[in-house]
Amino acid sequence: MSQVSSSLQRRCNCGMIANQFTSTTPSNPERKFFKCPKPKRSSCGYWQWEDEEYSESFVGGLVSSLDAFKNEITYLKNEKATLKEEIVALQGVNQAEMNKVLKMRVFMMISWVLFIGFVVASIMQ
């Protein structure tokens, strides 16, 4: 068995670095595979082709993560819709408040004009 670079090393279910072998069978000639380094009786049973990049458990974990992300996206979309509704409601409240402020300004300006008019009229008499 040749020495394997650390990037190609895989760990078996025991946590040990799996041994790499080359198949000599007619159905898989020269195909490389990994297996647990322990003897058959104490082995964890780990075995995987080198060209199979990811184990089923790894892919299953990715699928579970993808489902969790999909659920999170759905939740965030709902939150976004709720926030948009709240913004629209607040904009309506804000517009009503702005209208009140505008009316008060007009009222204050008319009041000041009338007050100044009375003061000027009383001075003129």
UniProtKB/TrEMBL annotation:
* Residues that span the membrane, as ranges: 106-124
Pfam families, per database record:
Zn_ribbon_GRF
Recite the UniProt keywords alphabetically: Membrane, Metal-binding, Transmembrane, Transmembrane helix, Zinc, Zinc-finger
List the Gene Ontology MF annotations in alphabetical order: zinc ion binding
Positions of the GRF-type domain = 12-53
Statement: the UniProt record of this protein carries the keyword Nucleus: no
Protein's name in the database? GRF-type domain-containing protein
